[in-house]
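Here we describe the complex-level prediction in full. Unlike the single-chain runs in Section 2.1, the two entities below were treated as one system.
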Amino acid sequence: EPEVTQTPSHQVTQMGQEVILRCVPISNHLYFYWYRQILGQKVEFLVSFYNNEISEKSEIFDDQFSVERPDGSNFTLKIRSTKLEDSAMYFCASRGGPYSGETQYFGPGTRLLVL
Amino acid sequence: DAKTTQPNSMESNEEEPVHLPCNHSTISGTDYIHWYRQLPSQGPEYVIHGLTSNVNNRMASLAIAEDRKSSTLILHRATLRDAAVYYCIRGGGSNYKLTFGKGTLLTVNP
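The structure predicted for the assembly as a whole is:
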């Protein structure tokens, strides 16, 4: 069964450093998402991406964050200058089509720890 | 705002059925009802979704009230591996993003 994969599974970084989280969505999917979950809290939407551009972003997704689909298979989330409060699980998700009944499939997540 | 209401927690015994309720009284006519679950330290996992009719798949059944203001996720025989947080999510919102609430923490007792 096709699945979304994410690398690395864990990342530890120093405050102020740049990190890139990588995702390989399900092949042929067209819509891509990043969510995050701070420990003990709800899963929160960060950004959606379609047709090589951001279609929606949340208040959390400020100019320290960026997303890219560099090569048609990977989908990346970059945090330019990490803060302590960026420590969280980051989940990538993808969906195939445009109607609201389409299922989003999530990856296993990257646990980011900012020290 | 998740716009759905679920109990914070529920408990079940292994091999017994579990009925997880969800209220979505302000749901629009075109919003699907999606159920996801999240096992400890894992990403959300799709369970089932529906619009008006009841739905069955290999994981669960979804019973949708006739007025669509509520739904119930049914796990026919709970196993220990079903212990998770279950999220009821309406529609997909703009750009089909999922808005998660706190969900229902299901505990399954052996």
